[in-house]
Amino acid sequence: MFDIRNIRAAVLDMDGTLIDSMGIWHQIDKDFFAEHNLVPPKGISNQVNKMTMQEWADFFTRKFDIHMTGEQVIRRIGEMAYTYYAEKIPMKPYVIDFLDFLDSRNIRYGIATATYRKSAEAALKRLGILDRMQFILTAEEVPSSKKTPEMFLKSAERLGSSVENTLVVEDSLHCIQTAVRAGFPTIAVHDASVPLHEQEEIRKLVSLYGSDFKEILQKINPERL
Q1: Would the pLDDT of 185 be above 70?
Q2: Are the beta carbons of 206 and 198 closer than 8 angstroms?
Q3: What total number of domains does the chain contain?
């Protein structure tokens, strides 16, 4: 049974959790393929969003006839993403309320994201929450991203908390599976980009699931604590 009184720290995902960014990655994939006069294969975005940066770059350079190295692919995708993060992507509803709640309970928190550091910092700064984070840990520092528990474990270490006392807040199935297998109490917030069958699996795995952070807070129900 999930009990917020046991939580000392929180590891927060960014894309699809704190910010409404997953849709822009579909557009970036289309734009990137268009730059090379290619038509993106059906379902390519859902396929690559579970890959690390290096895996995506290797996949693209191996499968398609282009003259780019993997490093050039990673750099170009980062350039294309930056404008969206710096200028356009909105915060998801009730995020500030959730951060305020964590603050009210002296729960320290930081970001663990597969996104490029430059883009992550730009978005969080524009939205006014960068300074609230203890740290940002990205796939540039942890190349395995969230396919292994390394990013979550490093985050807990930075927060000075044990696994069992560190809450993971996510939206995507493969990340949630990794966190749960590693022993982290995990909650999920709905994101429309997640396929229905994956949403159903997520509900089975997590301690709490909410359509947004307002519902998450209602389920935690701090008035009774």
Answers
A1: yes
A2: no
A3: 2
Question: Of 54, 72, 87, which residue constitutes the final position of a domain?
Answer: 87
Q: Are residues 120 and 29 in the same domain?
A: no
Sign, CA torsion 45/185/143/129: positive
Answer for the pair 16, 86: CB distance below 8 angstroms, yes or no. no
The string of pLDDT tens digits covering residues 107-136 is: 999 999 988 899 999 999 999 999 999 999
Task: Choose one of 87, 104, 137: the last residue of a domain.
Answer: 87
Query: Are 31 and 125 in the same domain?
Result: no
Residues 95 and 75 in one domain: no
Query: pLDDT (tens digit, 9 = 90+) per residue, 24-45?
Result: 888 888 888 888 888 877 777 6
Q: Are 132 and 111 in contact (CB under 8 A)?
A: no
Residue 190's domain comprises 4-21+90-224
- Residue written as token pair 């292994």: 148
Q: Which long-range contacts (CB under 8 A, 24 or more apart) does 131-135 make?
A: 132/99, 132/103, 133/12, 133/109, 134/108, 134/109, 134/110, 134/158, 134/159, 135/110, 135/111
How far is Cα 54 from Cα 28, in angstroms, rounded to an integer? Answer: 17
> For the whole model, what pTM was predicted?
0.87
Q: Which two tokens stand for residue 218?
A: 């209602």
Q: Domain check: are 115 and 178 in the same one?
A: yes
